[in-house]
Design a protein that fits this description.
Length: about 325
């Protein structure tokens, strides 16, 4: 075929190949198929390029002119595109198959020297692209796995920190708030009460004759008694109230928005219901509570003073046991 005939045939082939390539690009950028199967569409576009160039190489008067284009797609697939290595391997296979088919369908064919040059170029590009893609994919996979492990470890650390934070504010025996959380919540509630002029109450709770309980039932029995009382307090207070174990057999209830009358009613109900508690091994009426109630309003709401007045009322209740000690709130200053 003459150079003029080659030019016309090459131009016609290029124009014909532009159609499937353009359709593939449109699908890649605009259609749902492009979002679902981007690697496949990219491979098909490059396969069209390789088939086109392979046909030109075997029919060109100077095939070396087309060798750069014949290897460029392979280099791009192996070294630039973000895809699995199998697509580069598939493109290499298509390129060799297209070269062989184009050579068999031409009359003149390539001279031995040109065929050797084309084969060397294509083999070099194939080897470099496949090895580069395998290496890049291995590094990318390793980086991805490292990132996934790091994110999982961060999540695990976050869960552990949340558990530690919870445990740092929780009494391990009863599951109630511990003294640390109580002090923080009481201080914050007092600040809000002073700022808004609201009322709050504190109820201190003490198990009567707890030493005798431990002597009769052992420390396991004493622990069971504490858990039973803690459960009673938790189920009988309002949702916004805080129940805490301050230490030993002393528990407390923080009641934001509750005045002395309301807090005393709750304390009396707790006293009565504690009498029917029967942990394993306990007899009827063996447990009883002494409770001290104090309330404060507005400018009178200070943690130390409130706790001191509640403790005074608890001391009064413990003079007879199984009693509730209460007093009206101090006048606002």
């Amino acid at each position: 075929m003459t150079d003029t005939g080659n030019a016309q045939a090459f131009l016609t082939l290029r124009l014909l190949c532009e159609i499937p390539m353009a359709l593939g690009l449109v699908a890649l950028w605009r259609l749902p198929l492009g979002r679902r199967r981007p690697e496949l569409l990219t491979f098909l576009i490059l396969a069209v390029v390789q088939a086109e160039v392979a046909w030109m190489v075997t029919r060109s008067a100077d095939p070396k002119y087309h060798l750069l284009g014949f290897t460029l797609a392979i280099y791009g697939s192996g070294c630039v595109l973000v895809a699995r290595p199998r697509w580069t391997v598939a493109l290499v296979a298509v390129s060799w198959a297209a070269l062989g088919l184009a050579s068999l369908t031409t009359d003149a064919g390539l001279s031995p020297a040109d065929l050797l040059a084309v084969s060397v170029y294509l083999a070099t590009a194939s080897l470099i692209a496949v090895l580069a893609h395998l290496r890049r994919y291995a590094l990318t996979t390793r980086e991805l796995l490292t990132r996934v492990r790091l994110e999982r470890e961060q999540q695990r650390t976050g869960v552990l920190l949340a558990q530690l934070e919870r445990l740092s504010h929780e009494d391990p025996l009863t599951g109630l708030a511990n003294r640390r959380r109580w002090d923080a919540e009481l201080a914050g509630t007092c600040v809000e009460a002073r700022r808004r002029g609201e009322v709050l109450s504190v109820v201190l709770v003490d198990l009567d004759h707890f030493k005798d309980v431990n002597d009769r039932h052992g420390h396991a029995g004493g622990d069971a008694a504490l858990r039973a009382v803690a459960g009673l307090l938790s189920t009988r207070v309002r949702g916004g109230d805080l129940v805490a174990r301050l230490g030993g057999d002393e528990l407390a209830v923080l009641m934001p928005g509750a005045d002395a009358v309301r807090a005393t009613e709750v304390a009396e109900r707790l006293r009565l219901e504690a009498r029917v508690l029967r942990p394993p091994g306990f007899g009827p009426g063996e447990l009883s509570l002494s409770l001290g109630v104090a309330a404060a309003t507005g400018a009178d709401a200070y943690p130390l003073e409130l706790m001191s007045r509640a403790d005074e009322q608890l001391y009064r209740a413990k003079t007879t046991r199984n009693a509730v000690g209460s007093a009206p709130p101090q006048p606002a200053r």
